[in-house]
Design a protein that fits this description.
With 123 residues, the protein is mostly beta strands. It is 0% helix and 48% strand. The radius of gyration is 13 Å and the shape is globular.
Length: 123
């Protein structure tokens, strides 16, 4: 396993969670990193991405202003701070490392995937 996501759980609507994604066996300091999610019965969708130095970020419209992606300078850990959570944010969240350094929404450019962490938001 090269990417390990954690931090999921059950939270009430309006609450916050912080997801972490830790790299093992190698670092991804030269890679863009991203978070995706898959809700029950739906396809996996892009959530957020960050460039290799953290200077550029992308978000899907539904999480803008509520979620913040960040990364440490060592290229070992990526975070997703999720605030003002809504029931529709309920999903399994996956972190991924891209083969490029620029932040991207294109899941085909992500070569390494974590195992996912479940986020459940109750109404």
């Amino acid at each position: 396993v090269q990417l390990q996501a954690s931090g999921g759980g059950l939270v009430q609507a309006g609450g916050s969670l912080r997801l972490s994604c830790a790299a093992s066996r190698r670092t991804f300091s030269n890679n863009a990193m991203g978070w995706f999610r898959q809700a029950p019965g739906k396809e996996r969708e892009f959530v957020a991405a960050i460039s290799w130095r953290g200077g550029s970020t992308l978000y899907t419209d539904s999480v803008k202003g509520r979620f913040t992606i960040s990364r440490d300078s060592a290229g070992k850990t990526v975070y997703l701070q999720m605030n003002s959570l809504k029931p529709e944010d309920t999903a399994v969240y996956y972190c991924a490392a891209a083969r490029i350094s620029m932040a991207t929404m294109r899941n085909r450019l992500y070569d390494y995937w974590g195992q996912g962490t479940l986020v459940t938001v109750s109404s």
